[in-house]
């Protein structure tokens, strides 16, 4: 079965939505239809209060990808 990517624009935070998609698909027996649920992020170094801090930033604000 071919799988396609879908982009979800959530109202809540992307990580909450991604986890919700995983949980609800498992509860309904559809988890084999979802290969991946991604929240595209990148690791960045920010300066906070004069110190370098490693952080994670989303590529696309409020977006999850499902395959």
Report on the structure:
The protein has 67 residues and is of the alpha+beta class. Helices cover 21% and strands 36% of the residues. A three-stranded antiparallel β-sheet has the order 1-5-2, with helices on one face. The model has no long low-confidence stretch (mean pLDDT 79).
What descriptors fit this protein?
single chain; 67 residues; alpha+beta; three-stranded antiparallel beta sheet; two-stranded antiparallel ribbon; 5 strands; elongated
Order of helices and strands, N to C? EHEEEE
- Low-confidence spans: none
Net shape: elongated
Q: What is the makeup of the main sheet?
A: 3 strands, antiparallel
As laid out across the biggest beta sheet, the strand order is 1-5-2
Question: How many DSSP-defined strands?
Answer: 5
Fraction of residues in H or I helices: 10-25%
**Nearest-integer average pLDDT:** 79
The proportion of residues in beta strands is 35-45%
Q: What's the Cα radius of gyration?
A: 15 Å
Helix count, per DSSP? 1
Cα separation of the termini? 12 Å
Quickly give the structural class. Answer: alpha+beta
Helix-strand layout with pairing:
Blueprint: E1 6-8, H1 14-27, E2 37-38, E3 41-48, E4 51-58, E5 64-66
Antiparallel strand pairs: 1-5, 2-5, 3-4
Question: Short description, anyone?
Answer:
With 67 residues, this protein is an alpha+beta fold. It contains 1 helix and 5 strands, in the order βαββββ.
């Amino acid at each position: 079965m071919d799988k396609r990517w879908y982009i979800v624009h959530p109202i809540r935070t992307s990580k909450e939505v991604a986890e919700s998609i995983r949980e609800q698909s498992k509860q309904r027996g559809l988890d084999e239809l979802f290969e991946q649920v991604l929240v595209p992020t990148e690791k960045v170094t920010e300066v906070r209060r004069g110190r370098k801090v490693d952080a994670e930033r989303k590529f696309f604000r409020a977006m999850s990808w499902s395959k």
